Amino acid sequence: MTHGRAPGAPGAHDAARRALRGLVMAATVRIHRPDAGYALDEPGTFLGSGYFVAPSWVLTCAHVACGGEGGEVVVVYEPAPGRGMSAVSGHVAAALPEGFGPVPGNWPAPDLALVRLSEPVDHECVYLSERPAAYFGEGKVLYAGWTVVDGRLSLLDGTLTVQGTIGGWTTDVQMRLGDNDLPDGVSGGPVIDPERGEVIGVLKSRSDHARGGTSTGLEQLRTLPVPAGELKAEADDLYQAVVHAHDRYHRDRQRHPDARRHTWADVQSRLGARPGQTLSPDERVQLLGRLADLPPPASTRDLLDLLDSLQDFEAPAPLPAPRGWRDGLGALYEYARDDGALYLVLDYAVHAMTADRPFLAPSTPAAEEALWAGVWQAAQRLGPGRRTALVQRRKARMEARRPAPVVGARRTAVSAGDRGRAATGQSSVLVEIVRRGWEPDRCDWSVFVVRSDGEAKRLKEVQRVPLADLATHLSAPLKEAFRQCDTPGRPAVLQVATEHSLLALDVDEWKLGPEDERLGTQRPVVLRCSDRDQLTENAEQAEYAEYGEPGESCGIGGRHGTGGGGEQSAAALDGDYRLDIDEERRARWRWLHAHPVTAAVLDCDDGLRKPVPPVEELRGLSHGTVPVLCRFDGHGREADTEALARLVRGGFGVALWRRRHVLPETVCGEFHRGTLDQIAGPTGAHRLPEAVRDLRFRLRSGRPETFWAHGIALLYDDPHQPLPGAGDLLEAP
User: Fold this and answer.
1) Angstrom distance (rounded) from CA 620 to CA 618
2) Which one, of 270, 251, 258, lies nearest residue 80 by Cα?
3) Spatial contact of 336 and 313, defined as CB atoms under 8 Å apart
């Protein structure tokens, strides 16, 4: 086991320090008043600094963030070196201490605030230390922040000396830094441990009644309010939501590195840091990421009891008390400094994976298994006796733990409402869009009102409309159709039927008027495939080409020959094949609406693109499967259009994907996790249109736990409800 910093050439260490500086600068932002508008470089609206701690979350000082109006601010950042500054609005989600307003020249400690972005953007995040700042000894720290130099906003960084603490021996709320006044504006910026390459605090540019500045330790975030009552989801606890998102971000970045950018774990490895003298930086981010996939501890008391139950661990818990899984891991680091520390860390992980849960998400069982797989892999460095002890510990604790409520029960009201719509019957609105083959940038369209008994009434039909102008042309007829179908408290479903090559249309983003909400947040918007029959015919032709003579078995659940002699005609086999596919489609639909469903990502393996399986393999998936496409982009990728075609040919009437062209270049772990937790559940697929609408509504409301759903689309194509008006639109000349 390597202890301390790994040896290396001085030049290599200097390069690592430069890389660390680059990561810090990339994540450091400036905060402006909401009236900044387009004047992003105007010092007059500048309030101070901050830094990204998790996707869509900025940490800063309370006196900086609360300098805006009504808790609203503008965050200015650089997505990547050389790409220029961008701006996004944000809202102060929490400020510590609670209940304090601005005090001229001062703000009570700990003077921290979390700013929630209003929309997802592409940005870097710092790495937050799990250790309380009290563990940071004398020495030097790095800092970064924005200030005004010669009338222009500039990003500064430098070194400060640690000179002690302010706040008492039990809390160590703030560290005293430096002996010179720091410039205005750097307050809210990060304070970094240069040896371990991790952020340990938030900078305040001036200390009280003294020269120099101060730093508030990150552990003070643990004092964020604890929600009253039971936790029903991770997002119910702001602290857990932010730190879990932080740990999953760094785990996913490490799994899928960008060749153009260093990761924090890479830089920490080059610095020679070894957290707690036992884990490598890569091992640490993987372990913390797996812990962050679990529901949080049931309470702080439960976590403290867990730490007390660990063998050979008697160190007092730091203050503020640990609250999340990463805090408990940090409490172990400074206690065990020899090879026995690995067993202590793995024992803690086993306790975490078998702890009592405040709730269960559909992804929880898989998260527990993934954590155990990581523990077992690391345990190969231990002796056989300790490996056996971990196995026995896991078994005993799993048998003893209490059952937890299932998150899916929280969505019962949505499911019941959707069932009510199906039971009582409600009209829906259908838009059919047909691309003109000889004018691919234009289309014909019709709007129908579909009664609850399936009868369709055409309201309007228009031809030769530019695809780019569809929303404008459809505005008036859609408003009329909705007036005919909506009932109080129950907006009608909008069905959009297109050929598979147009399923990337972002109809849910359309607005029918400049002041109107987007359609996808107003009501359920679902997609249907209008050229399913043509795709099935193409599948028949492909099977004939592959298998040759009739009478041979063709794929999983495919057609079969007479088997006993004599030949069927090709037309008869066509009919058999079509009946087989159509019956599969109806059977899948019935099963999905009567049983729990399971989401399955088909085109992405742990963040790496892979082809959607062939139709024969897709038809072998269980009837309870809802296919999910993570890598879909209907603009310019023929392979993505073919992926949708395979799902249609495979008999799937329900599927999910996201339009990646509207997303920043981020890893997709949150999308995989989100679809699993939002789609899987104790009720059937009938709740999905309303569940997706609810996701879009919360996304538009600026809820970061839903940002993974940006661009989400739902195929919901009822085989028992044929599309009306087939062949009614004018054919090509």
Assistant:
1) 5
2) 258
3) yes
Q: What is the pLDDT of residues 303-337, one digit of tens each?
A: 988 998 988 787 666 678 889 999 999 888 766 55
State which H helix or E strand residue 263 sits in. none
Environment class of residue 578 by beta-carbon count within 10 Å: exposed (0-12), middle (13-18) or buried (19+)? middle
Tell me if 113 sits within 8 A of 61, measured CB to CB.
yes
**What single letter denotes the amino acid at residue 105?**
G
CA-to-CA separations, 551 to 40, 74, 566, 577, in angstroms, rounded: 70, 68, 9, 12
DSSP 357-398: -S-B-TTHHHHHHHHHHHHHHHHTTS-HHHHHHHHHHHHHHH
- Are 529 and 498 within 8 A, CB to CB? yes
DSSP characters over 13-64? HHHHHHHHHHHHHHHEEEEE-GGGTT-TT-GGGEEEEEEEEETTEEEE-HHH
What does the alpha-carbon distance between residue 268 and residue 573 come to, in Å, rounded to a whole number? 63
Is the backbone of residue 271 left (phi > 0), alpha (psi -120 to 50) or beta? alpha
pLDDT in tens, 677-717: 888 766 789 999 999 999 999 998 888 989 999 999 999 99
CA distances from 180 to 55, 154, 205, 211, 425 (A): 34, 19, 10, 6, 73
Measured distance CA(699)–CA(709) in Å, rounded: 7
List the beta bridge partners of residue 658.
Answer: 712
Radius of gyration of the chain (CA): 29
Name the band, by pLDDT with cuts 50, 70 and 90, for residue 571. Answer: very low
Nearest to 332 by CA among 323, 320, 319, 346: 346
pLDDT in tens, 128-170: 998 876 556 568 899 999 999 988 999 999 988 888 777 654 4
CA torsion, points 638, 643, 645, 651, in degrees to nearest 10? 180
Integer Cα distance of 171 and 180 in angstroms: 25
The Cα 101–Cα 85 span in angstroms is 31
What tokens appear for 153 in the block?
A: 């906003």
- Residue 259, SS3 per DSSP: coil
Q: pTM to 2 decimals?
A: 0.81
- Three-class SS state of 108: coil
Given a cut of 90, whether residue 205 has pLDDT beyond it is: no
3-state SS assignment for residue 281: helix
Give strand ranges (E) for 590-725. Answer: 598-601, 604-605, 608-609, 625-629, 654-658, 712-716
